[in-house]
Amino acid sequence: MSSDPSRDQSRDRLADPTRTVEFGAPAPVQNGAAPARQPPPEHEHEHEHEHDRGDGSRARTLAVIAVTVTVLPAVALTLPGGGHGALDAARDELRLNDAGAADLVRATGATLPALLVAVPLAAVTVRRLPARPVLAAGLLCLLGGLVAVRYAGSVPFLAAARAAQGLGAGIALPAALVLALERRRALPVALWAGTLAAVLLAAMPVALRAAPRPDPATGAVDWRLALAPYPQVAAVALGAALLCLLLRDTAPADAPPAARGAARSAERGQLLLPAAPAAGLGFLAVVTTYGWSPGARLVVAGVGVVTLLGLALTGGRDDIAANARTTPDSRACAVVMVAVGLLAFPVTGPLAGLVQAAAGEGGGVSPVPFAAAACAAVAGALATVRLPPEGARGAVHGGFGLVVVAVLLTLAVDGTAGRWTLTACLVPLGAGLGTALAASLRGTSAGAALYGLSLCPPAILTGQLIVLSLQAGQWQRARPESAAQQFYALSAGYRVWLITAGVLAVALAAAAGRRAPSGRTSEAVSGGGER
């Protein structure tokens, strides 16, 4: 029986373990046998493995995109409070007096304080646990709150249901960001940034259009529907999250080096840094509804702005992108998140209310200007995907420039302007916020991105506190009686807010343009948990 030369050579190598053959060097020939075939380098196996998993990776990326375009709208739709018509109908049905009506307003507004407290806690959780089950848990809580509102029969029950909506939204928001970052691709992250800006711009107009009309026969209004608009969006988002959970990678995630343990601990401390200020701001925002004057509420809002800017500038000092000379550092990401919170929902929300007031009874809010702004936000964010690294910082500055232009244009009009005039004003706002946010996330670590996200909901609350206080102050000074006088008072307060927003945009642009100190860098990492 003839012997196999390759087997003989293998036995010889096993018999003499001191003999080694380096990769790339010809193997010695024994007894005229052909050189033994050497195993390919390890990285070649990795390329083959990635090629084999190409279809699965694309499917997971598509699932993450589906999560982004469904979860973020579901989160944003929890922010509006239902409108005056729904509150009046709820007051009549629940037979509330003046004190009970004030409690009703606080109950409907419980979503945002719950959300801003939940986001930093969920950010820490999503760095310790896989993002997919955390996302599913948050959406289940959100959907449960939406369903519970339909059965609300008292103010405390309504407050608990609205708080559950905010809690679920606050859990789902960081998890969706981590899923986008885990793909390690520019497109999912840019789409997440553009979608966040878009939904904050369009949330109030969409909610106003979804507000139920009085029944022609009885005149009754289904106020519960106004406090839980479009629950189908949250249900579809939950389905996308479950699909993403099923499509998770089977390969285990790379274990972090032992040297990263201290960095992880420091990151957890940094992510928890906004929790206490956010909780304090939420508490004060609720307390100010107990008879505080508009001036006192403005003082609270001013303290909130200063606190958020300080947290944005100091919180990311130890987590700077490795290429900080060409890309925005983590502090710029935090500053832009604050800008998106201050200048998206608090700008378009009151404007949508003015447009509806100008339309009068039976009129509605034209969706064209706000839909165009939302589309511009997504388009501006996606335009940053092809930008070279050195263009990211310039894109942040250009985005802030568009925001300032939009504020100046909006100052020249009011709620009575036509749809195309408003479109011309709001499109630069959407494009600027989407571009700046997507560009600021370039080269930013997951910890820095989550830290910045923790500052966005408090900024939304602060912006709302400013604009509503300014409008309330104008209302108290004017003491309007007719509908025209009421509209003028609200418009005057909104104009003062636009001037304030322009000043804030310039200040935030200057803060985002500050370069990080040289010599301190950190490796940009993607999200934690499973991929």
TrEMBL record:
The chain crosses the membrane at residues 62-84, 104-126, 133-153, 159-180, 187-208, 228-248, 269-290, 296-313, 334-355, 367-387, 394-413, 419-441, 448-472, 492-512. Keywords: Membrane, Transmembrane, Transmembrane helix. Residues 1-58 are annotated as: Disordered. InterPro entries: MFS_trans_sf. Residues 1-16, 40-58 have a biased composition (Basic and acidic residues). It comes from the Bacteria. This is MFS transporter. It comes from Actinomadura miaoliensis.
